[in-house]
Amino acid sequence: MTADIKHIDSSQKRFSALMLKIAAILGMTANHTAVVFGTSLPDVALCVLTALGGLTFPVMAYLLIEGYRHTSSFPKYVLRLAVFALIAQVPYYLALSESPADILEYGALNVLFTLLLCLALIYAYDHMQNRYLYWALFAIALAASALCDWGLVGPVLVLLFHTQKSPSAGLLIYGFAGVISSVFLYFEGALLVEVLSQVLYYVFGFTLAFVLMRLYNGQRGPGGSFHKWFFYVYYPAHLLVLWLIATLL
Question: In the chain, at which end, N or C, are there fewer CB atoms within 10 A of the end residue's CB?
Answer without folding.
Answer: C
